[in-house]
Design brief:
Endonuclease I-creI, alpha+beta, 10 helices, 43% helix, 3 domains
Amino acid sequence: MRDGVPNRVVADQLGVPIGTIGWWRYEDRRRRGEAFIRPTDCPKCTGRDFDHQAYAYLFGLYLGDGHIISKPKQHHLSIFCGDAWPGLIKATESAIREVMPQYRVSSRQRNGCTEVKSHTQHWVCLFPQHGPGKKHERLIALEPWQEAIVDEYPWEFIRGLIHSDGCRITNWTTRLVGGVRKRYEYPRYFFTNKSEDILCLYADTLDIVGVEWTMTRRGKDPFNISVARKDSVALMDAHIGPKY
């Protein structure tokens, strides 16, 4: 084990619980006075390459429906996904594994949604927007390396935001044509968030890909960004589409 054999391999060979192996290793290090350094594959700490495309999508999910718990004995990233879209749950799990493959991804059933979790303190390295309080009550600004990734994969970032705090709906209206009232349907995209910073990030990225948008306000506060023009909706459909 001192040569790097994983706990689970030794547990399988000896036929004992993996927790017992972990305790033996802890006692062995304690007797030898060896400090425990948890191994990590964090891209920011190790300098390794990582999947920028998966990160752009996961970053959008985090800004919309995610948060990080960072306490002395508890560290994890949580993304909340509606149970109505099982494809979204699988896509979230896949993105987490592609960005940080070393750490286990788990899910927990909540009321009407599924919490997808990954336990490691290093998520704060990849999401420096983490901080005390709610996201809409603190500054959300991108680091230069994050800006480069969003510029590289703007559609993945938009897709993550839409899959978290956005939707594609079909509006309808009626008109009199030749004395006959006809129904007309037209799709549009909405993105809703209480953080003005996150709304601006979404709008700026839409500008990069050539999508026209309008903003709705509640009083003086920005609240909702709508994409309704036919050509812009078609562009969003080609790259985003409805949740699944």
